[in-house]
């Protein structure tokens, strides 16, 4: 039986909410965000990850794997497609309880978290660079945008919370750059719910998708970070670890964005 450590925020009698966006999420999505400088656009292009490859899209449409991340040395990391395509489980719900204000679900995949927030009446936006993921998220009843976290996004600097789950600390292959970007997106005092790898790892790698049947996609930059590594990256990019917990083998951190000087 797994022992569950309840996060500090769960025991607070009346946790304060971060500021939520004043504009409805759906309205904000329909408005085109302002263009970013050319240098920022180039950075976005470099950090885009080819999850739109057919292997991932096919798995999402089927709702099942097998699908793996393959390292250059041949090591395979199974991707939990079936869990992602199902509804939120108890581990997911332990994360959802910590969301405050409007929520940005980064790398939303098929949208189980954004859809659950929508069902609860909490403003939420899922973003993903894979059209099949955005399609599934919208079909589940949530608002979703085909975009990278490094693209111009609606309501920058206004989100109350952000989700970074299911290994998405690896987006772009540079955790500090990703964490710094997310901090730009949140309102002062906003919070990030991040999932760490279940092992003590801190690596940046080139990976590719592999369906276990001899087919694979192009290589792309990725990263993995366990709890200690994620805490370290967070501290160096202006975050404070407010709570951490484990639920059914998954490891989560609640990070608060320290106020900018």
UniProtKB/TrEMBL annotation:
<dbReference type="GO" id="GO:0008168">
    <property type="term" value="F:methyltransferase activity"/>
</dbReference>
<keyword id="KW-0808">Transferase</keyword>
<dbReference type="Pfam" id="PF13489">
    <property type="entry name" value="Methyltransf_23"/>
</dbReference>
<dbReference type="GO" id="GO:0032259">
    <property type="term" value="P:methylation"/>
</dbReference>
<dbReference type="InterPro" id="IPR029063">
    <property type="entry name" value="SAM-dependent_MTases_sf"/>
</dbReference>
<keyword id="KW-0489">Methyltransferase</keyword>
<protein>
    <submittedName>
        <fullName>Methyltransferase domain-containing protein</fullName>
    </submittedName>
</protein>
<feature type="region of interest" description="Disordered">
    <location>
        <begin position="1"/>
        <end position="35"/>
    </location>
</feature>
<feature type="compositionally biased region" description="Low complexity">
    <location>
        <begin position="11"/>
        <end position="35"/>
    </location>
</feature>
């Amino acid at each position: 039986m797994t022992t569950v450590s309840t996060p500090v925020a769960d025991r607070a009698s009346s946790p304060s909410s971060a500021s939520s966006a004043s504009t409805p999420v759906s309205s904000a999505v329909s408005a085109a965000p302002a263009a970013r400088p050319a240098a920022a656009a180039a950075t976005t292009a470099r950090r885009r990850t080819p999850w739109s490859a057919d292997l991932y899209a096919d798995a999402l449409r089927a709702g099942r794997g097998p699908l793996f991340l393959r390292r250059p040395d041949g090591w395979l990391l199974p991707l939990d497609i079936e869990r992602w395509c199902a509804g939120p489980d108890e581990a997911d719900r332990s994360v959802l309880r910590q969301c405050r204000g409007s929520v940005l679900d980064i790398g939303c995949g098929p949208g189980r978290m954004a859809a659950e927030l929508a069902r609860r009446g909490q403003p939420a936006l899922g973003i993903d660079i894979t059209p099949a993921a955005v399609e599934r998220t919208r079909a589940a009843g949530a608002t979703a945008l085909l975009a990278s976290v490094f693209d111009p996004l609606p309501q920058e600097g206004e989100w109350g919370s952000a989700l970074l789950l299911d290994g998405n600390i690896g987006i772009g292959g540079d955790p500090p750059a990703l964490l710094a970007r997310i901090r730009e997106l949140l309102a002062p005092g906003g919070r990030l719910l991040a999932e760490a790898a279940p092992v003590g790892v801190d690596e940046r790698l080139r990976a590719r998708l592999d369906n276990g049947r001899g087919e694979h996609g192009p290589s792309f930059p990725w990263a993995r970070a366990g709890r200690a590594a994620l805490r370290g990256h967070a501290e160096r990019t202006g975050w404070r670890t407010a709570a951490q917990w484990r639920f059914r083998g998954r490891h989560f951190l609640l990070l608060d964005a320290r106020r900018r000087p």
